[in-house]
Amino acid sequence: xxxxxxxxxxxxxxxxxxxxxxxxxxxxxxxxxxxxxxxxxxxxxxxxxxxxxxxxxxxxxxxxxxxxxxxxxxxxxxxxxxxxxxxxxxxxxxxxxxxxxxxxxxxxxxxxxxxxxxxxxxxxxxxxxxxxxxxxxxxxxxxxxxxxxxxxxxxxxxxxxxxxxxxxxxxxxxxxxxxxxxxxxxxxxxxxxxxxxxxxxxxxxxxxxxxxxxxxxxxxxxxxxxxxxxxxxxxxxxxxxxxxxxxxxxxxxxxxxxxxxxxxxxxxxxxxxxxxxxxxxxxxxxxxxxxxxxxxxxxxxx
Length: 302
Hints:
Order of helices and strands: HHHHEHHEHEEHEHHEHEHEEH
Number of strands: 9
Mean pLDDT: 85
Structural class: alpha/beta
Shape: elongated
Largest sheet: 7 strands, mixed
Radius of gyration: 24 Å
CATH topology of the domain at 162-272: D-Maltodextrin-Binding Protein, domain 2
CATH architecture of the domain at 162-272: 3-Layer(aba) Sandwich
CATH class of the domain at 162-272: Alpha Beta
Helix content: 40-55%
Low-confidence stretches: none
């Protein structure tokens, strides 16, 4: 069998389209399509469902992809290990993250990895858990960073990052209200929170005053968002209180633009971020090294 056709087949599936594969392989779309057709004729198998523009594998195609991918990765790994020269290793690592992780955590881990593997490229997809999980299962990313993973039968996870959430409000907002002395005093305040699946205020109340949890859970945010930076800006402009990662608001706290509510009378909420990757997918040498690096560095973030 022509192994060049097999490699083209893998690249089309990984890229998600003939167009993207053609760009990566520096070939025309027509040449890629002809190779795929020739591979099917050679193997006497139908590998793709061609009812639409999206790449959809048949059951035979899915089986062949897994076998081809595993075999090529093993060959690639053998070559890298024989060379044992990280500076010459090339390839692409595709990551899926929340927006918040992309501004703080991502630059650090990319820099740390590229110090060892300078020729490796990264592609980043931003989204929330449900979007990232779908992308991981569809082979659109190699690793996802999740608050919560639904399909643990197919996805391995390991904690790599913890974020301390503290309850804050703006000084301007607080000046117009009575002094906040207890956790119960926070119940009437306007709330800016994450969307329902990630609501944090009720969790904070449950952690600190369990008897108020039922009432806190009924509280409807004046604004619901899925982004820490937007959350912070809404609070800074006087829209209420919110639980926000401490590192994001440290400058506002130091200048007095924001105030932490009840810092001595309440516990912060800790949010854990896991790295996730498919269980059945054979990791390449670069993917394996990337996973080792972020796990070795998690003492800085946990």
